[in-house]
Amino acid sequence: MTPGMRRLYVPRPVEVEVGSDGRPSSVDGIAVEAVREEWLVEDRWWTPKPLGRRYFELVLVDGRNLNVFLSTVTKRWYRQRG
Amino acid sequence: MEVACVLIPEPELADPVEAGELTERLLRRLERIGAAVESERLGEAFFVLDGLRGIHGGESAGVLAAARRAVGKGVRIGVAPTRFAAHAAAQREAIVPSPAAGGFLSALPVSTLVGRLELPPREAGGLIETMRRLGLERLGALAALPPDRVADRFGSAGLRALRLARGEDSPLRPRRPHEELVEQLELPEGAAGGQLEHALKLLVARLLAAPQRKDRTVLGLRLGAVLSAGGSWSVDQGLGRPTASARTLRAVLAPRLETLPGPVAALRLRALGLGPPVGDQLELSVRGEEHRRRRLSEAIREVRSAQGADSLLEVLQLDPASRFPERRAVLTPASDR
Are B198 and B319 in contact (CB under 8 A)? Predict the structure, then answer.
């Protein structure tokens, strides 16, 4: 990244528990009320550094809306705004 | 007089854009030791040693040592009484004192003149070939000829060659040192089309927000790119009149992006000259939106000078339609409105 510049909407690591269907059941210890949407994004699959993300738009029991994704490459969970 | 010539080796000049950057870096490093440098061709720099001895120990050797430290390894340095002789000396990494300059030049082949006669390469080559056919192999033989005979046979180019062969040369015309104002943006993957326009907007904003600009206007710009497929590209853009308007700079540079030969890995913008500060320019009465814009610009400058260049940021859309949110926008130092 060029000095002085800051990216927006950078993914942040997050603790996610998943249910038997592979969908998030809690985020940072807060239960998921509903999964509003789910989608898959893949890019750069033709390069040595492919990107693959399974996104979930969630509603938590505390009322917050949240987007999280599971990196299909690193198998880690992240939350992301934007 | 002692003239030093510093040469970047030919293989490093293969890419013209990179060669321009290397040359600019070389000139700046020499300017930092106090040298007034002349450079009319890529990869070469000339400066007079005489005025620098006082600040580098009193001897030419001290000046040369400082120059070597400044430019680092891998370049060739030569010294001789004239520009032409210094260039030949640098190719041989030689130091030619004034009394030995005549002998040094006499022994050089006439082909040394190629590139130094202010002639297109083909015409210069033709002139040298003619000299050889007439038995003039060395500069010494050329220098021994009377000027009227040289003028009769070779014209004005021949007279110029004769002057160089005799150790006569015009004085150096050093450039005026100026602060470097350059911004580069690395793009995460081959960018093209609309993404490049966003990147250009960001570069212009950063260039105008750079503290070393000190409110001065821009006189000309060089837009360069590192291409994803390898190689590079650049174009110089004059501005007609000094300006510090982001909108004007974007308007003149945007059409240039269309001439890019392919996707881009990095975009670079360099100010080729800085003019008088914005406030020094004459203007007609300003009202309405322009008045508000200027007040905002002034406020931005005040915040920036009090809190630092990166204290005031704005959101710049890079690739708003990207499926990866972190590629859509960046925070960047606010530009002058």
Answer: yes
